Amino acid sequence: MINMNRESLVVLGVMLLAAPLLAQGKPLTVTGVRGLTFGAVLPGVPRVILRTDPANSGQFDIKGPKGGPVLLSFVLPLSMTGPGGALMPIVFGAGDAGFSSTQSIGSQVGFDPKQPTTVTFPNNGSASVFVGATANPATNQRAGAYTGTITLTVTVLP
Amino acid sequence: MMRALGLAGMLALASASLAAQGVMVAPHAVFIDHRLRSGSVLLYNPGTEPVEVSISTIFGYPTTDSAGRITLDTLLADSTVSALRWIQAFPRRLTVGPRERQTVRLLARPPAGLPDGEYWLRLVIAAQAGRVPITGVADTTAIQVGLTLEVRTIIGVNYRKGPVGTGVTLSELSARIVGDSLITRSKLERRGNAAFIGMIRETLVDSTGAVRGQRVGDSLVTTFASPIGVYVAMQPRLASAIPHPGLPRGRYWLRYEVVAERDDLDPTVVLKAPAVRDSVQLVVP
Amino acid sequence: MALQLTNSSTQKQELEMRSITKLSLVVAALVLTGTAVQAQTNNASITATANVQTPINVLGAQQLNFGNVFPGVNKSIAATDLTNAGRFDVTGQASSPVTISFTLPATLGSAGNTMPIVSYTGVHAQNNAQTGGTAFSPAAGASPSLNASGALWVWVGAQVQPATNQAAGVYTGSITMTVVY
Question: What is the reported pTM?
Fold first, then answer.
């Protein structure tokens, strides 16, 4: 019983300690807003989508702690999968990702999506990441719909 | 010497590519769903000069002539399966710049009460293939001749409303060897209310049951496959090269099958249908 | 360690065990909570999509080249003349049957003057050297198939007939090839 009381005190202490830490910022949320769309692709003809393309670039919105450094890292597909398991290579260039502290596609700072990148989160707690890529269909690429998954992981650094 | 020849070859290629003009059209068959009532065609200019393109529509569907050659039957303009009057293409004139792509939209305004089924038209994409340079030595002749090359590509547009189904029947299969080719004919008749889009596959089997293949590059091709679209009925004549240096004397069987499969089309637009098969004996004397 | 204490026979030892174990859990919770605060992580995914569409490509690849033409001297270019015959290149799905037809000018024009162009000839082949090629009449058209790689080459030749008093000038016209796919 004595021990249990001591435990309760410890738990209370932990909660008291954790509460101010959590209060430093609101919860971090990352949302996939728009898929990266290559549209119609011709066999043998590379299709480039720029991160500044307002209709076809991929977009993530981030809400989180105001200010401070944030680490952005991607899990990128090497290919998109189509009919009967057919694969189509997708290539991400060194400038194919962009961070916008104003959530404006016209105001981005480019970065390499293949490298984890640290950015400074804006004071209003909202930012966006845009991503472009190049699809490289083979000359005998099978016709049909192809898909791949792009994952953005955001880590708020202390 | 080799370097000089190589350079000459490169220059010849360069000049050829400068003259080569046209426009890529994709897809080569358009399928429009009644629920969407629109489709699109992508035009891409792989060349170095702008290409002027004009778009028009006609009604027609493939059939075969008496010799089995596939032709476009455009005579039945008032056919009940024609979508000519209510599908329009926009824009009808456009210029596609070098390495540029542009989209032609197809908009359908089907009449009220249109019965379920498939309706057809053909899209004509006319591209002026660049004005070719006029060659000749100016100081030895006062007459110069230049011919502009133009190309027209005609592709199918299939509009589908409600439940659609297709199938095909196969009859009157025949096969013979002519020179270095295997010539086949068959009669194909469509079933259902939509065109049969698929492939004809031909496989030659010898008296031991072994498939006679043909080496193409590093691979052994055992089946000759030809895309086919059966809109109403046709009797296509197919010619395929027989294995080099020729078939030994003996009896062979030609396996002939018509399947609703196409690698060049989005699988979602290829209507499922049972495969039909037949075989016919061949004797090489 | 916890397993050994659980096996202990005395009540005191069991109480100590509970206290230590619960304390450990609390500390672990503290560590985890602290970690979460120090480095909040979240992720989301989007989909990359593409729709591959097989094209057909018809090119006017090489002009029908008559070179120098002189008044009163007919000049022919055969369809088998790989250098000077007009050439169209078709690429599409392997082994596809196509129908080709032509619109052929009967005359070439230059500022109101005309020059006859006649005797069109054609060859189609599944290679660009015309090996195993098939001669055909462009006026009648043809129904060839693309080769196993989805390619077809078509050549056109003709004859121009300048009159003895043919006016000087640049004479032009258009040859149109229609491909039904």
Answer: 0.80
